[in-house]
Amino acid sequence: ISFFKEINNSLLLGSGFFFESWNLYPCILEPPKNLEREFGNKNSQNYLIRKAFPEFDILNQKLTIKYIINGKFNDEEININSKHRLRIFSITEIEYALQEAGFSKPEIRSSLPGLNLLRNDLKTMSRMISFYTKKITLDI
């Protein structure tokens, strides 16, 4: 709630707020797995390989992802190691926090790039979801 209040305080009344989040329930049904993705073309000046190594603590709703990114960007060698520590909240928890922080009930869709309507079936629900809401109260 305090995170969303800080955002609310930086926006004008009626301003829109868009963000993405992990979706707790699909992550419980099928926890995140190690993943390797390639970006760009091997023969171009921009080519990256991103490896992700997630660790999901279901009981505490915590996700830690170690990223290793190697390749080249603008023909410059890139070697990045980072660790992201995240909390994964349910849709209900996020809706509640937004409303407590002075935002409207959010419109919830699948993640970018599709922004498809969110399905209520947990087995087919998107793992990443997008929220769009508006500031409806003055600074809190």
Mind explaining what this structure looks like?
The protein contains 3 helices and 7 strands. It is α+β, with helices and mostly antiparallel strands and 140 residues long. The chain has a 4-stranded antiparallel sheet, with no helix packed on it. Strands 1-7-6 form a 3-stranded antiparallel sheet, with no helix packed on it. A hairpin with a 6-residue loop joins strand 2 (35-40) and strand 3 (47-57). The mean pLDDT is 92.
Order of helices and strands: HEHEEEEHEE
Strand content: 35-45%
Quaternary status: single chain
The count of DSSP E runs of length 2 or more, i.e. the number of strands, is: 7
Mean pLDDT: 92
For the largest beta-sheet, the strand count, sense and barrel status come to: 4 strands, antiparallel
The dominant shape is globular
Beginning-to-end CA distance, first to last residue: 11 Å
Task: Provide a count of the helices.
Answer: 3
Radius of gyration: 18 Å
Please give the share of residues in helix: 10-25%
With strands numbered from the N-terminus, the spatial order across the biggest sheet is: 2-3-4-5
Structural class label: alpha+beta
Could you list the spans in which at least 5 consecutive residues all have pLDDT below 50? none
Which short descriptors sum up this protein?
140 residues, alpha+beta, 4-stranded antiparallel beta sheet, 3-stranded antiparallel beta sheet, 3 helices, 7 strands, 17% helix, globular
